[in-house]
Specification:
The complex is a heterodimer. Chain A is mostly helical. Chain A has one domain. Chain A has ten helices and no strands. By secondary structure, chain B is mainly beta. Chain B folds into two domains: about 35 residues, no CATH class; about 120 residues, Immunoglobulins (Immunoglobulin-like, Sandwich), CATH 2.60.40. In chain B, strands 1, 2, 3, 4, 5, 6, 7, 8, 9 and 10 form a ten-stranded mixed beta sheet that branches. The longest helix of chain B has 15 residues. The termini of chain B are far apart. The chains are: A mainly alpha, B mainly beta. At the A-B interface, helix 3, helix 4, helix 5, helix 7 and helix 8 of A face helix 1, helix 2 and strand 10 of B.
Chain lengths: ~220, ~170
Protein backbone atom coordinates (compact mmCIF):
# COMPACT_ATOMS: atom_id res chain seq x y z
CA UNK A 1 0.00 0.00 0.00
CA UNK A 2 2.74 2.40 0.93
CA UNK A 3 4.11 2.08 -2.59
CA UNK A 4 1.06 3.75 -4.06
CA UNK A 5 1.45 6.90 -1.98
CA UNK A 6 2.61 9.91 -3.90
CA UNK A 7 4.39 11.89 -1.34
CA UNK A 8 4.60 15.61 -1.73
CA UNK A 9 1.37 16.17 -3.61
CA UNK A 10 -1.08 18.31 -1.68
CA UNK A 11 -4.80 17.74 -1.52
CA UNK A 12 -5.28 20.24 -4.29
CA UNK A 13 -2.79 18.63 -6.65
CA UNK A 14 -4.65 15.46 -7.50
CA UNK A 15 -3.49 13.30 -10.33
CA UNK A 16 -4.43 15.12 -13.51
CA UNK A 17 -5.63 12.08 -15.40
CA UNK A 18 -8.20 11.46 -12.68
CA UNK A 19 -9.18 15.08 -12.20
CA UNK A 20 -11.33 14.83 -15.31
CA UNK A 21 -13.28 11.78 -14.21
CA UNK A 22 -16.61 12.18 -12.48
CA UNK A 23 -16.98 10.56 -9.06
CA UNK A 24 -19.03 7.65 -10.42
CA UNK A 25 -16.28 6.72 -12.87
CA UNK A 26 -13.64 7.03 -10.18
CA UNK A 27 -15.65 4.75 -7.91
CA UNK A 28 -16.10 2.21 -10.71
CA UNK A 29 -12.33 2.08 -11.09
CA UNK A 30 -11.84 1.81 -7.34
CA UNK A 31 -14.22 -1.15 -7.30
CA UNK A 32 -12.15 -2.76 -10.02
CA UNK A 33 -9.10 -2.44 -7.78
CA UNK A 34 -7.50 0.64 -9.35
CA UNK A 35 -5.43 2.19 -6.57
CA UNK A 36 -4.60 5.28 -8.61
CA UNK A 37 -8.33 5.97 -8.89
CA UNK A 38 -8.52 5.76 -5.10
CA UNK A 39 -5.71 8.32 -4.84
CA UNK A 40 -7.65 10.51 -7.31
CA UNK A 41 -10.79 10.15 -5.21
CA UNK A 42 -9.08 10.99 -1.92
CA UNK A 43 -7.26 13.94 -3.46
CA UNK A 44 -10.54 15.29 -4.78
CA UNK A 45 -12.42 15.09 -1.49
CA UNK A 46 -9.92 15.25 1.39
CA UNK A 47 -9.75 19.05 1.10
CA UNK A 48 -13.55 19.25 1.35
CA UNK A 49 -13.69 16.89 4.34
CA UNK A 50 -11.01 18.92 6.10
CA UNK A 51 -12.97 22.12 5.40
CA UNK A 52 -16.13 20.56 6.84
CA UNK A 53 -14.31 19.62 10.06
CA UNK A 54 -12.77 23.07 10.39
CA UNK A 55 -16.09 24.73 9.54
CA UNK A 56 -17.51 22.79 12.49
CA UNK A 57 -14.62 24.07 14.60
CA UNK A 58 -12.89 20.79 15.34
CA UNK A 59 -9.28 21.03 16.50
CA UNK A 60 -6.62 19.91 14.04
CA UNK A 61 -6.16 16.59 15.87
CA UNK A 62 -9.89 15.84 15.97
CA UNK A 63 -10.29 16.95 12.36
CA UNK A 64 -7.48 14.61 11.28
CA UNK A 65 -9.09 11.64 13.08
CA UNK A 66 -12.52 12.45 11.67
CA UNK A 67 -11.24 12.70 8.08
CA UNK A 68 -9.36 9.42 8.42
CA UNK A 69 -12.37 7.69 9.96
CA UNK A 70 -14.58 8.92 7.12
CA UNK A 71 -12.27 7.41 4.51
CA UNK A 72 -12.08 4.15 6.47
CA UNK A 73 -15.88 4.08 6.54
CA UNK A 74 -16.01 4.50 2.79
CA UNK A 75 -13.65 1.54 2.35
CA UNK A 76 -15.79 -0.44 4.79
CA UNK A 77 -18.90 0.46 2.76
CA UNK A 78 -17.47 0.13 -0.76
CA UNK A 79 -19.41 -3.01 -1.57
CA UNK A 80 -22.70 -1.77 -0.16
CA UNK A 81 -22.69 1.79 -1.46
CA UNK A 82 -25.70 1.99 -3.77
CA UNK A 83 -25.12 5.14 -5.74
CA UNK A 84 -21.44 5.54 -6.50
CA UNK A 85 -21.99 8.76 -8.44
CA UNK A 86 -23.09 10.46 -5.21
CA UNK A 87 -20.00 9.47 -3.28
CA UNK A 88 -19.29 13.15 -2.61
CA UNK A 89 -22.60 13.55 -0.80
CA UNK A 90 -22.05 10.28 1.07
CA UNK A 91 -18.61 11.41 2.20
CA UNK A 92 -19.72 14.86 3.36
CA UNK A 93 -22.76 13.45 5.19
CA UNK A 94 -20.58 10.84 6.90
CA UNK A 95 -18.03 13.50 7.74
CA UNK A 96 -20.67 15.72 9.28
CA UNK A 97 -21.84 12.84 11.48
CA UNK A 98 -18.27 12.14 12.58
CA UNK A 99 -17.78 15.77 13.50
CA UNK A 100 -21.04 15.90 15.46
CA UNK A 101 -19.98 12.74 17.32
CA UNK A 102 -16.63 14.33 18.18
CA UNK A 103 -18.38 17.44 19.49
CA UNK A 104 -20.85 15.44 21.56
CA UNK A 105 -18.10 13.17 22.87
CA UNK A 106 -16.03 16.18 23.81
CA UNK A 107 -18.91 17.56 25.80
CA UNK A 108 -19.48 14.24 27.57
CA UNK A 109 -15.94 13.02 28.18
CA UNK A 110 -14.39 16.10 29.73
CA UNK A 111 -14.71 16.40 33.48
CA UNK A 112 -15.19 20.16 33.25
CA UNK A 113 -18.86 21.17 33.08
CA UNK A 114 -18.02 24.20 30.95
CA UNK A 115 -18.94 23.84 27.27
CA UNK A 116 -15.62 25.22 26.23
CA UNK A 117 -14.67 23.15 23.24
CA UNK A 118 -14.62 26.30 21.18
CA UNK A 119 -12.12 27.80 23.54
CA UNK A 120 -10.01 24.65 23.34
CA UNK A 121 -10.09 24.80 19.57
CA UNK A 122 -8.92 28.38 19.66
CA UNK A 123 -6.10 27.49 22.04
CA UNK A 124 -4.96 24.77 19.64
CA UNK A 125 -4.89 26.98 16.63
CA UNK A 126 -1.87 29.10 15.76
CA UNK A 127 -2.54 32.81 15.47
CA UNK A 128 -3.59 32.68 11.88
CA UNK A 129 -2.85 36.27 10.90
CA UNK A 130 0.80 35.76 11.78
CA UNK A 131 1.04 33.21 9.01
CA UNK A 132 -0.11 35.63 6.36
CA UNK A 133 2.38 37.63 4.41
CA UNK A 134 0.34 40.70 3.61
CA UNK A 135 -1.84 42.95 5.69
CA UNK A 136 -4.47 42.74 2.95
CA UNK A 137 -4.78 38.97 3.39
CA UNK A 138 -4.73 39.32 7.17
CA UNK A 139 -7.51 41.92 7.03
CA UNK A 140 -9.61 39.65 4.85
CA UNK A 141 -9.12 36.65 7.14
CA UNK A 142 -9.79 38.75 10.23
CA UNK A 143 -13.05 39.92 8.67
CA UNK A 144 -13.96 36.31 7.84
CA UNK A 145 -13.34 35.37 11.48
CA UNK A 146 -15.68 38.12 12.63
CA UNK A 147 -18.62 36.76 10.64
CA UNK A 148 -21.41 35.00 12.48
CA UNK A 149 -20.80 31.23 12.95
CA UNK A 150 -23.24 30.13 10.24
CA UNK A 151 -21.60 32.40 7.64
CA UNK A 152 -18.13 31.26 8.70
CA UNK A 153 -19.19 27.63 8.36
CA UNK A 154 -20.73 28.13 4.92
CA UNK A 155 -17.77 30.09 3.55
CA UNK A 156 -15.20 27.72 5.10
CA UNK A 157 -16.80 24.79 3.26
CA UNK A 158 -17.05 26.80 0.02
CA UNK A 159 -13.30 27.53 0.35
CA UNK A 160 -12.46 23.84 0.01
CA UNK A 161 -9.92 22.99 -2.67
CA UNK A 162 -10.95 21.77 -5.20
CA UNK A 163 -14.25 23.71 -5.02
CA UNK A 164 -17.20 21.56 -3.91
CA UNK A 165 -20.57 21.31 -5.65
CA UNK A 166 -23.52 23.00 -3.96
CA UNK A 167 -25.00 19.54 -3.37
CA UNK A 168 -21.89 18.56 -1.41
CA UNK A 169 -21.92 21.82 0.55
CA UNK A 170 -25.60 21.26 1.36
CA UNK A 171 -24.86 17.73 2.60
CA UNK A 172 -21.97 18.99 4.69
CA UNK A 173 -24.07 21.64 6.41
CA UNK A 174 -27.37 19.74 6.36
CA UNK A 175 -29.20 22.61 4.67
CA UNK A 176 -31.29 22.75 1.47
CA UNK A 177 -29.27 23.04 -1.74
CA UNK A 178 -31.36 26.05 -2.73
CA UNK A 179 -30.18 27.99 0.33
CA UNK A 180 -26.49 27.84 -0.59
CA UNK A 181 -26.47 30.47 -3.36
CA UNK A 182 -28.49 33.16 -1.52
CA UNK A 183 -26.62 32.61 1.76
CA UNK A 184 -23.27 32.69 -0.02
CA UNK A 185 -24.17 36.09 -1.44
CA UNK A 186 -25.50 37.36 1.89
CA UNK A 187 -22.41 36.20 3.82
CA UNK A 188 -20.01 37.71 1.29
CA UNK A 189 -21.88 41.02 1.48
CA UNK A 190 -21.59 40.90 5.24
CA UNK A 191 -17.86 40.23 4.81
CA UNK A 192 -17.54 43.34 2.63
CA UNK A 193 -19.37 45.40 5.23
CA UNK A 194 -16.95 44.28 7.94
CA UNK A 195 -13.97 44.99 5.69
CA UNK A 196 -15.23 48.48 4.89
CA UNK A 197 -15.91 49.26 8.53
CA UNK A 198 -12.46 48.06 9.51
CA UNK A 199 -10.77 50.02 6.73
CA UNK A 200 -12.65 53.19 7.68
CA UNK A 201 -11.87 52.72 11.36
CA UNK A 202 -8.18 52.78 10.53
CA UNK A 203 -8.30 56.17 8.77
CA UNK A 204 -8.51 59.80 9.87
CA UNK A 205 -12.05 61.21 9.74
CA UNK A 206 -13.09 62.62 6.39
CA UNK A 207 -10.51 60.56 4.54
CA UNK A 208 -12.43 57.42 3.69
CA UNK A 209 -11.19 55.13 0.96
CA UNK A 210 -8.47 57.60 0.17
CA UNK A 211 -5.31 56.98 2.09
CA UNK A 212 -3.22 54.29 3.68
CA UNK A 213 -4.19 52.89 7.01
CA UNK A 214 -3.53 55.28 9.84
CA UNK A 215 -0.23 54.69 11.60
CA UNK B 1 -10.72 51.33 -6.99
CA UNK B 2 -9.92 47.95 -8.52
CA UNK B 3 -6.27 48.20 -7.55
CA UNK B 4 -6.36 48.02 -3.78
CA UNK B 5 -3.77 49.39 -1.43
CA UNK B 6 -1.91 47.18 0.93
CA UNK B 7 -3.23 47.59 4.44
CA UNK B 8 -6.82 48.14 3.47
CA UNK B 9 -9.67 45.93 2.47
CA UNK B 10 -10.01 47.79 -0.80
CA UNK B 11 -9.54 45.82 -3.95
CA UNK B 12 -10.98 42.93 -2.03
CA UNK B 13 -14.21 44.84 -1.50
CA UNK B 14 -14.54 45.49 -5.21
CA UNK B 15 -14.16 41.84 -6.15
CA UNK B 16 -17.18 39.89 -7.28
CA UNK B 17 -18.40 36.91 -5.26
CA UNK B 18 -16.44 34.30 -7.19
CA UNK B 19 -13.22 36.29 -6.92
CA UNK B 20 -13.72 36.79 -3.21
CA UNK B 21 -14.28 33.08 -2.60
CA UNK B 22 -11.16 32.35 -4.65
CA UNK B 23 -9.19 34.78 -2.48
CA UNK B 24 -10.49 33.14 0.69
CA UNK B 25 -9.63 29.72 -0.74
CA UNK B 26 -6.08 30.87 -1.39
CA UNK B 27 -5.72 32.23 2.14
CA UNK B 28 -7.28 29.11 3.71
CA UNK B 29 -4.64 27.06 1.89
CA UNK B 30 -2.03 29.13 3.75
CA UNK B 31 -3.48 29.35 7.25
CA UNK B 32 -5.47 26.11 7.43
CA UNK B 33 -3.97 23.72 4.90
CA UNK B 34 -4.79 20.02 4.95
CA UNK B 35 -1.90 18.40 6.87
CA UNK B 36 0.18 16.03 4.75
CA UNK B 37 -0.47 13.23 7.26
CA UNK B 38 -4.21 13.59 6.62
CA UNK B 39 -3.65 13.26 2.88
CA UNK B 40 -1.46 10.17 3.23
CA UNK B 41 -3.83 8.54 5.75
CA UNK B 42 -6.69 8.99 3.26
CA UNK B 43 -4.67 7.37 0.51
CA UNK B 44 -3.62 4.50 2.76
CA UNK B 45 -7.22 3.78 3.86
CA UNK B 46 -7.83 1.53 0.85
CA UNK B 47 -5.35 -0.92 2.38
CA UNK B 48 -7.98 -1.80 4.99
CA UNK B 49 -10.29 -3.29 2.33
CA UNK B 50 -11.04 -6.92 1.58
CA UNK B 51 -11.39 -8.38 5.03
CA UNK B 52 -13.41 -11.56 4.82
CA UNK B 53 -16.25 -12.35 7.20
CA UNK B 54 -19.04 -10.31 8.73
CA UNK B 55 -19.36 -6.73 9.90
CA UNK B 56 -20.41 -5.97 13.47
CA UNK B 57 -22.10 -2.58 13.42
CA UNK B 58 -22.13 -0.06 16.25
CA UNK B 59 -25.31 -0.55 18.28
CA UNK B 60 -24.65 1.82 21.17
CA UNK B 61 -22.10 4.42 22.21
CA UNK B 62 -22.36 5.96 25.65
CA UNK B 63 -20.45 9.03 24.51
CA UNK B 64 -22.91 10.07 21.83
CA UNK B 65 -26.25 8.73 22.99
CA UNK B 66 -28.44 9.31 25.96
CA UNK B 67 -28.66 6.36 28.33
CA UNK B 68 -30.60 3.61 26.64
CA UNK B 69 -30.26 0.89 29.24
CA UNK B 70 -28.48 -1.19 26.60
CA UNK B 71 -25.07 -0.42 27.98
CA UNK B 72 -23.63 -1.97 31.08
CA UNK B 73 -20.00 -1.77 32.11
CA UNK B 74 -17.93 -4.90 31.56
CA UNK B 75 -16.73 -4.35 35.08
CA UNK B 76 -18.08 -1.92 37.61
CA UNK B 77 -16.51 1.44 38.26
CA UNK B 78 -14.65 3.77 35.97
CA UNK B 79 -10.90 3.71 35.79
CA UNK B 80 -9.19 6.27 38.01
CA UNK B 81 -12.35 8.34 38.23
CA UNK B 82 -12.06 9.38 34.59
CA UNK B 83 -15.08 9.06 32.32
CA UNK B 84 -15.56 5.66 30.80
CA UNK B 85 -16.97 5.14 27.32
CA UNK B 86 -18.97 2.05 26.52
CA UNK B 87 -19.44 0.75 22.99
CA UNK B 88 -21.49 -2.19 21.77
CA UNK B 89 -21.13 -3.80 18.35
CA UNK B 90 -23.18 -6.66 16.94
CA UNK B 91 -23.17 -8.81 13.81
CA UNK B 92 -22.44 -12.30 12.53
CA UNK B 93 -23.88 -13.81 15.71
CA UNK B 94 -21.34 -12.04 17.88
CA UNK B 95 -21.64 -9.13 20.28
CA UNK B 96 -18.52 -7.18 21.14
CA UNK B 97 -18.61 -4.78 24.08
CA UNK B 98 -15.80 -2.32 24.62
CA UNK B 99 -15.08 -0.21 27.67
CA UNK B 100 -12.63 2.62 27.15
CA UNK B 101 -11.02 4.47 29.99
CA UNK B 102 -7.77 6.10 30.86
CA UNK B 103 -6.31 9.51 30.75
CA UNK B 104 -4.03 11.74 28.76
CA UNK B 105 -2.71 10.46 25.48
CA UNK B 106 -3.45 6.78 26.03
CA UNK B 107 -6.47 4.61 26.69
CA UNK B 108 -7.17 1.29 28.36
CA UNK B 109 -9.52 -0.98 26.45
CA UNK B 110 -11.45 -3.73 28.18
CA UNK B 111 -13.50 -5.90 25.84
CA UNK B 112 -15.92 -8.77 26.04
CA UNK B 113 -16.98 -11.05 23.21
CA UNK B 114 -20.34 -12.80 23.50
CA UNK B 115 -21.09 -15.65 21.13
CA UNK B 116 -17.53 -15.84 19.92
CA UNK B 117 -15.04 -18.66 19.61
CA UNK B 118 -12.49 -19.08 22.40
CA UNK B 119 -8.99 -17.94 21.64
CA UNK B 120 -7.99 -14.49 20.58
CA UNK B 121 -9.17 -11.28 18.95
CA UNK B 122 -7.18 -8.59 17.22
CA UNK B 123 -7.36 -4.81 17.49
CA UNK B 124 -6.51 -2.66 14.50
CA UNK B 125 -5.45 0.91 15.06
CA UNK B 126 -5.61 2.85 11.79
CA UNK B 127 -2.13 4.28 12.31
CA UNK B 128 -0.26 1.46 14.01
CA UNK B 129 -1.81 -1.75 12.65
CA UNK B 130 -2.98 -5.02 14.23
CA UNK B 131 -2.34 -6.30 17.75
CA UNK B 132 -3.52 -9.70 18.98
CA UNK B 133 -5.18 -10.00 22.39
CA UNK B 134 -5.96 -13.22 24.30
CA UNK B 135 -9.48 -13.90 25.55
CA UNK B 136 -10.04 -15.29 29.03
CA UNK B 137 -12.59 -18.02 29.75
CA UNK B 138 -15.38 -15.42 29.86
CA UNK B 139 -14.42 -13.98 26.51
CA UNK B 140 -12.82 -10.86 27.97
CA UNK B 141 -9.64 -9.15 26.88
CA UNK B 142 -7.59 -6.19 28.00
CA UNK B 143 -5.45 -3.82 25.96
CA UNK B 144 -3.50 -1.08 27.71
CA UNK B 145 -1.86 1.93 26.15
CA UNK B 146 -4.15 2.36 23.15
CA UNK B 147 -3.50 5.56 21.21
CA UNK B 148 -6.33 7.91 20.23
CA UNK B 149 -7.60 7.51 16.66
CA UNK B 150 -9.77 5.16 14.60
CA UNK B 151 -9.80 1.50 15.74
CA UNK B 152 -11.72 -1.69 15.04
CA UNK B 153 -11.77 -5.15 16.62
CA UNK B 154 -11.83 -8.51 14.85
CA UNK B 155 -12.87 -11.72 16.55
CA UNK B 156 -14.14 -15.11 15.44
CA UNK B 157 -17.70 -16.31 15.87
CA UNK B 158 -18.50 -19.63 17.55
CA UNK B 159 -19.07 -20.95 14.03
CA UNK B 160 -15.55 -19.88 13.05
CA UNK B 161 -16.50 -16.89 10.89
CA UNK B 162 -14.37 -13.75 11.33
CA UNK B 163 -16.41 -10.79 12.58
CA UNK B 164 -14.99 -7.26 12.40
CA UNK B 165 -16.47 -4.20 14.06
CA UNK B 166 -17.02 -1.03 12.11
CA UNK B 167 -14.44 1.70 12.68
CA UNK B 168 -14.80 3.86 15.71
CA UNK B 169 -12.73 6.88 16.72
CA UNK B 170 -11.48 6.67 20.29
Amino acid sequence: MAGTLRNGAGAGGYVDSFGELDPGELMARVHAGDQDAWVGLTDRYTGLLWSVARAMRLSEADAADAVQTTWLRLVESLDSLRDSARVGGWLTTTMRRECLAVLRRGARMRPSPLPEWEQLVDADDPPEELLLRTERDAALWRAFRRLKPLCQALLRVLMADPPPSYAEVAAALEVPVGSIGPNRQRCLNRLRTILLAEADAGRPPGDRRGSDRHG
Amino acid sequence: MRAGRPGTGEGVIDMDDDELIAELRRIAAEVDAVPETVVSAARAALGTRDLDGELAVLLADSATESDSGLLEPVRTGSSHGYPTRLLTFGGGGVQIDLELGGRGGQLDLLGQVTGGAPGECAIQHASTGWTRVDLDSLGRFLFSGLAHGPIRVRCRSAGGIPVTTSWVTV
